Amino acid sequence: MKMLATTDLSPDTTSQARRVGPPILKVEHLSREFGGVLAIGDLSFTVAAGDIHSIIGPNGAGKTTLFNLVTGVYKPSGGRVLFDGADVSGMAPYRLAARGMSRTFQNLQIFFNMTALENVMVGRHLHLNTRLLPALFRFPSLVRKDREAKDRAAQLMTEVGLEKYIDADAAAMPYGALKRLEIARALASEPKLLLLDEPAAGLNATESREIDEVIKTVAATGVTIILVEHDMKMVMGISHRITALNQGRMLAEGTPQEVAANADVIAAYLGAAP
Amino acid sequence: MNTLLHGRLTGLLALGAVIAVLPAFLPNNFYLDIAILAGFNAVVCVGLNLLIGYAGQISLGHAGFFGIGAYASGVLVGVYGWPPILALLTGAVVVGLLAFLVAKPILRLKGHYLAMATLGIGIIVSIVLRTESGLTGGPDGMMVEPFKIFGFELYGEKVWYWVVGVLLVGVVWLSLNLIDSPMGRALRAVHGSEVAAEVVGVDTARFKVLVFVVSAVFASVAGSLFAHYTGLITPAKADFFKSIELVTMVVFGGMASTFGAVVGAVVLTLLPQALTVFQDYQQIVLGGILMATMVFMPKGLLPTLAALLPARRRA
């Protein structure tokens, strides 16, 4: 794998050795309040294309809210989100998906009324003929492309390590496998930017390491990844850059080494003397 | 794909075979008539199941769409002398537009707003049919001309049985096709998780509107043909209780199962005939069946039976 040795502890190797890509996502002065409570306040940061960019912070720091703002699930109270240079603030998720943004969910959002393979095939939605008449009358072109989508979905499931669940009903799969199923479904849409919301939450150490490998493999194909994760070993191991949040605001940003050494970050996690 | 294709063809052939041999076991036109009514209900239920079973949206006004189709045929052919096929198509277009106009604003919202709105439509349609007695004959209903096309007149139970049989097979075929297509998966995804469907590019509002329109049009077409078959239509065919009956058929037969919808429609059409003692308590029996289904067999009759069969992965 052509990944960089981000675990190398010599300072700043990552930022200097890697060519930093152009910005794919820019968040400018973003804020969102819920009934007077500021979940995200005046937050600005940039994600470079090709990076694995992690968002960390203690519980309630606003990580998932940030994801929901970026992916259009919530509308911002203020500020802008720029994706690929275009202002996409508050744009519906399905439009963002068409522009090349997809995500997974912290609390699983699986189509439990379908098979695992069909879940991933839904991810091919944007690449298929989704019109009514061809579907009703089963146009040959639709059937052919559907068959290709099925093969592609099976291939993706294999790539994330789910080959033994290809024929399974989603409802019959264990938690760890469903986490991967979400990743496979998101990948099926061929995103440029993939947001992963705690992909390792609830997984054991082995599963967590496997997810780690999956993420690196995906990133190696050129997909930019924004990762929210509590597993610090994973975050420090695979991230190119890290943005640390606390109470909806930016706490620190930099390479894993920089952020790990930042006094404010340590204070936010461990609690500091005032 | 093979197993699905296999399942689809097997089911369609089985349905076709049952329809083909059934008349041999029906001693007279009385039974044939019941079979025809079951067929009409089944056509509506297959469409309604696309909405309820697959897309997870509730309509409590489908009898209203059935009624508009029926009265479009009754009025346009009887009063204005239109050719029946043109009246049928006009009814279908009107119902499609109405469904679109109602669903468009409402389906952007989440939750059970559609159920409430459709409840309203059903009631309004039924009131209009009762009060506009100049055109519709009011509560007593109206006579409907026979269906004539290319100089042929569809007449009698024997002919109508085959018309409805072919229609039902066709509608089931369309439904199975739709479900196993990208659009069908999008519909089921809407049911499974709207937000997850959205983030892979599914315009959930669009598909909810679309399936609502499709299911309403199925009901309208069935209503038009039903009107020509019976020759007499009343507003009762469009009222709230009829809508509930249709929902009960879908839920009882099996949500998200096309053949389940057919079975539900057939069983619940036969039941009142078999239990004529319950004539006066029909609504109560229907409500009881709906509740018992939800409690004891939430997946519905056919999926529950299919789950009992070993080694059959997909029903």
From TrEMBL, chain A:
Superkingdom of the source species: Bacteria
Which residue intervals define the domain ABC transporter in the entry? 25-272
Q: Which InterPro entries match?
A: AAA+_ATPase, ABC_AA/LPS_Transport, ABC_transporter-like_ATP-bd, BCA_ABC_TP_C, P-loop_NTPase
Q: Name one GO cellular component term.
A: plasma membrane
Question: What are the GO BP annotations of this UniProt entry?
Answer: D-alanine transmembrane transport; L-alanine transport; L-isoleucine import across plasma membrane; L-valine import across plasma membrane
Q: Has UniProt tagged this entry with the keyword Iron-sulfur?
A: no
Any Pfam family the entry gives: ABC_tran
The record ties this protein, via SMART domains, to: AAA
**Under the GO molecular function aspect, what terms does this record hold?**
ATP binding; ATP hydrolysis activity; L-isoleucine transmembrane transporter activity; L-phenylalanine transmembrane transporter activity; L-valine transmembrane transporter activity
Q: Which keywords belong to this entry?
A: ATP-binding, Nucleotide-binding, Transport
What is the name attached to this protein's record? Amino acid/amide ABC transporter ATP-binding protein 1, HAAT family
Which species is listed as the source?
A: Azospirillum oryzae
UniProtKB/TrEMBL annotation, chain B:
Report the main location listed first in the record: membrane
Q: Does the entry feature the keyword Membrane, yes or no?
A: yes
- State a GO cellular component annotated for this protein: plasma membrane
Key word Membrane present:
yes
InterPro entries reported for this sequence: ABC_transp_permease, LivM-like
Membrane-spanning ranges = 30-52, 59-79, 85-103, 112-129, 159-179, 209-229, 249-272, 284-309
Alphabetical list of Pfam families matching this protein: BPD_transp_2
Protein topology in the membrane? Multi-pass membrane protein
Q: Where in the cell is it found?
A: Cell membrane
Keywords from UniProt, A to Z, are: Cell membrane, Membrane, Transmembrane, Transmembrane helix
GO-annotated molecular function: branched-chain amino acid transmembrane transporter activity
* Domain of life assignment: Bacteria
PANTHER family on file? BRANCHED AMINO ACID TRANSPORT SYSTEM PERMEASE, HIGH-AFFINITY BRANCHED-CHAIN AMINO ACID TRANSPORT SYSTEM PERMEASE
Q: What is this protein called?
A: Amino acid/amide ABC transporter membrane protein 2, HAAT family
Species per Swiss-Prot/TrEMBL record: Azospirillum oryzae
